[in-house]
Backbone:
């Protein structure tokens, strides 16, 4: 390749976690605008304004250069649509490198397309494994890593996983957690958010809840048990729930609207990144079935109760503030009682989770492409 020419980089995003991972990388690449030309492709996997537009604004991300507008579909149909539309765009762009983030369907689709077109691929947040193949995200991670040329890893467990899977070590780069870059940059701005005042909340006197994973919200009995458990917890401490559109849809479908009227179980609209960061950072604890929040709460030193039986971020269990509760309602309530009595799990920040991950990635790209 001509080392003097600008390298064309296509960045593929499709959902909120991608935006938080892409924003610091876009900024760092812009610092070398004489070396890199960026093309931002938004697949439209998350199409709701709350889930997309406001995050772009909060993170000061540029508008996407290409918007595929795929929208919500089943996993197979959505992935297939992205493959069809993305192939056409990448054939025209012919990038020197395509970069994907995390484990969503857009990431898998881009990995398939670049492999078929023989285009180099970089995967940010590579190597993470929950070892639960029932999770669609796990399949997305495994396939994307197998097809990637650059694997940028958040923690040592990810490096070990990739080596155990037979991936060449010269493709693997331990760089830290790029989500930390966004969190650290935006935390000062979040301090000025009015979200607590808007909902009459006092710091450390509420728990933040997120709940959207299909295994938790698509099954009527599981969702009911969780809502009953959380409703009981809200009698001891207020729970604030920025409710994902998928979850409110299932609550309405199953006829569980009564839970939304409990006085201390506050169902609110989904939030932009800055408001949610403020809410999370001022929480007594966070209850969630998300992946990224396990890392955010570890950085913020906020107890996190994860409503899953496994995690792709084992370091948040080993040295962070995270603990797995699954859907065991007694375990969830007991964990909350421990936190309220002052016996919450103490954690430390993992190595390289320092807010400089994007810079390390760009340093590698400067030498490699």
Residues:
């Amino acid at each position: 390749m001509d080392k003097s020419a600008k390298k064309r980089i296509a960045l593929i995003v499709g959902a909120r976690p991608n935006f938080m991972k892409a924003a610091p990388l876009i900024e760092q690449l812009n610092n070398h605008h004489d070396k890199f030309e960026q093309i931002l492709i938004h697949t439209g996997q998350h199409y709701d304004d709350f889930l997309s537009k406001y995050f772009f604004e909060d993170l000061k991300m540029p508008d996407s250069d290409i918007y595929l507008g795929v929208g919500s579909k089943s996993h197979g149909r959505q992935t297939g649509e992205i493959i069809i539309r993305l192939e056409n765009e990448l054939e025209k762009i012919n990038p020197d490198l395509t970069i994907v983030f995390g484990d969503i369907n857009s990431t898998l689709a881009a990995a398939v397309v670049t492999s078929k077109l023989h285009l180099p691929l970089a995967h940010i947040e590579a190597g993470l494994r929950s070892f639960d193949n029932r999770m669609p995200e796990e399949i997305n991670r495994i396939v994307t890593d197998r097809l990637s040329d650059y694997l940028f890893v958040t923690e040592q467990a990810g490096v070990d996983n990739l080596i155990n899977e037979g991936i060449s070590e010269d493709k693997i780069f331990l760089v830290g957690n790029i989500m930390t870059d966004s969190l650290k940059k935006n935390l000062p701005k979040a301090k000025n958010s009015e979200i607590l005042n808007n909902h009459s909340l006092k710091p450390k006197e509420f728990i933040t809840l997120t709940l959207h994973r299909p295994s938790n919200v698509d099954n009527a009995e599981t969702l009911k048990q969780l809502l009953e458990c959380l409703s009981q917890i809200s009698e001891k401490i207020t729970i604030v729930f920025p409710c994902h559109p998928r979850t409110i849809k299932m609550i309405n479908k199953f006829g569980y609207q009564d839970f939304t009227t409990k006085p201390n179980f506050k169902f609110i609209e989904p939030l932009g990144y800055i408001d949610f960061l403020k809410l999370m950072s001022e929480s007594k604890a966070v209850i969630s079935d998300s992946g990224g929040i396990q890392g955010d709460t570890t950085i913020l030193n906020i107890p996190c109760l994860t409503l899953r039986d496994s995690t792709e971020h084992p370091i948040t269990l080993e040295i962070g503030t995270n603990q797995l509760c699954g859907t065991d309602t007694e375990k969830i309530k007991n964990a909350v009682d421990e936190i309220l009595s002052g016996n919450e799990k103490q954690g430390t920040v993992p190595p390289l989770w320092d807010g400089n991950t994007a810079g390390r990635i760009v340093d590698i790209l400067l030498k490699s492409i």
Notes: Residues 246 and 366 are 41 Å apart (CA to CA).
